[in-house]
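Continuing from the previous page of notes. For each protein in this section, the sequence appears first, followed by its structure tokens. Read the first protein now.
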Amino acid sequence: MAEYIEKAEIERQKTYLLKLKEQSNNFAIKNGRKPRANTETYGCQQNENDTERIRGILAEAGYEFVDKAEDADLVIYNTCAVRENAEDRVYGRLGILKHIKESKPELTIALCGCMVQQEHIVERIKKVHRHVDLIFGTHALYKLPELLYNTLCSKKMVIDTENSDGKIFEDMPILRDDNSKAWVSIMYGCNNFCSYCIVPYVRGRERSRKPEMILSEIKNLVADGVTEICLLGQNVNSYGKDLDEEIDFSDLLKMVNDIDGVERIRFMTSHPKDFGDKLIDTMATCQKVCHQLHLPFQAGNDRVLAEMNRKYTKEEYLEKIRKVKERIPDISLSTDIIVGFPTETNEEFLDTLDVLRKAEFDSVFSFIYSKREGTPAAKLDFVLTEEEIKKNFDKLLEVQNEISKKKNDAYVGKVFEVLVDGVSKNNDQMLSGRTDTAKIVNFKGDKSLCGKYVKVRVTESHTWSLNGEIVE
């Protein structure tokens, strides 16, 4: 059974929130404005959800938010440890912050998240980036009020990166920017220990939230106008295994489906080894569960999958895809793929391309393998050169882009219900939204439609998005 942070400890953190608010009021009296915070998030949706909690705490403490670090009094970077590129970006930003702090010494800089849950990273920051004021890991997020207060009072570097399996905390503030969609974490941590992945080491063991807490959060979101819910977990299919009651992820989906006011339900991420017939049936029969599935396969070769510790074969994966398509013919599929796992040969990579062609994913999230210190795969020697790996990666993109365009072409001429997200990122004269199958559709319309559902006829397809027009 998952451990919870005791209510007394949460109440203690709320007393620090009051102290921070008093500090903010004094700051406002002195400076004629509220203290300003800038937050940046790297990594997955779980990190995005964690940042919403950080922003909720800061808002409760009297902070307002700005988009640029140079305009802020407090900068918090919520970091990712999954790939080296994400860490490099953080180090680059820290270099920029050093220059900002030289001209603005009162600036407070904080790092949190998966990256700083690693001891060697913390040691590097302590030695090289002494301008960082606060470091706290994934398990200490609920302590932010106390940690920030101590940082502001002591003017010394404060560090809390306790190594534990993690505990669940409830009843802390959360601030979401989107009024129509929301991420809801149903569980934390991971027990799978894929040989290339650092997540179990920085996020701890799997621990499920109690269903009544999840349902209560969703009902409150609906009361605030949210209609689309995305249930989050490192492996949602493991939900409930650590609870005292008999409940699994399919059962939870049905409970959420029964909540009045919820229009759409999405979830991520599923692990193929735990993805079975019961969940497929639930997706097919629950009318609010979107016809979208993200099911990472990572590599197509059985020997490589075994070295990755993925616990399924290529054929087992493709059989699951076949069953999903049979039960839900209009399903939209996406996946994660790692190219260049250390022992993967060119011949074995061809199996990955074979999976692409047979599964016909609508989209893929593909990455070149990134060595993670502390994982078993980090000890393996590469059999391919960087040039060969890059060539394979480019070939994968070539094959998938053709498939994605073909899948999107099939949408042209048809009418779909679209939840309007807002103004298109690529054209401020257009609106953008998503279909039930998570296809991005751009179309002309009034901004008053944001957060609403509209009927859109698709008129044009591209590799990554669709264009359309509102059907009156």
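Done with the first. The second protein uses the same format. Note its length before scrolling.
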Amino acid sequence: MLDLAYSVLLAALPAAVLLAWFRRQDRARPEPVGLLGRSVLYGFAATVPAAALELVLLRFGPSGPRLLAAAFDAFAVAGLVEEGVKYFFVRRYLYRRPEFDERMDGIVYAACVSLGFAFAENILYGYADRTVLFFRAFTAVPMHAAVSGILGYWIGRAKIEGARVDPRLARGTELGRKRLGGTELDKVESPPRALRGLVEAVFLHGAYDFFLFTRSAWALMAVPVLLAAILRLVFLVADAKRRDREDRALPAL
């Protein structure tokens, strides 16, 4: 029993460290701790439908060249299914919450779901070999957090900027443009933003796994993909915080 508890603690540690980082980025208007914990549990639960869908897709995967099979497993089985399930849980259980009132909140909630997902994976993969947990702490766990944080940024923009389309903004005033974070095109483009985030997350997740699935020297290319995802997330966190600060500085309509 003590051995199991130690394994669970090691599995949870990298997710907890990253969760603290995301919460720090949101310190201007932090989200309720209880809701963050619930979001992590959503991610933990998301592993069940994800595993079921992956098993189904694997039965229909290509049996041809190794690179084709690796691409299918990486982009369809892993990337699309896992990021799609996370997207579903964020949209279904968190999107309409009144606490979700800033773009940064989208990043935080999606990251919490992804870290719950990564924690569950850590338990599964690291139970038999704890050295796996060490490597995943610096690779798979931050990868999940980064790509889902990117997804959350676009979900946050879809909610906050899309929700602010009303008759007073439809006239295209300067205040309206600021409220929407851009031009009047935002009123048309805001719903697909969440889907744009899903596409970006699936691509980065898939690219990371694809190089690993080649089981060759190309696996090292997963590291630049991971770094690119992290840098992309850092940029989007800064952009979300900037947009949220500008919104708070605007007069109420």
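What the second structure shows: Confidence is low (pLDDT under 50) at residues 165-177, 180-190. Residues 2-248 form one domain. We return to this in next week's lecture.
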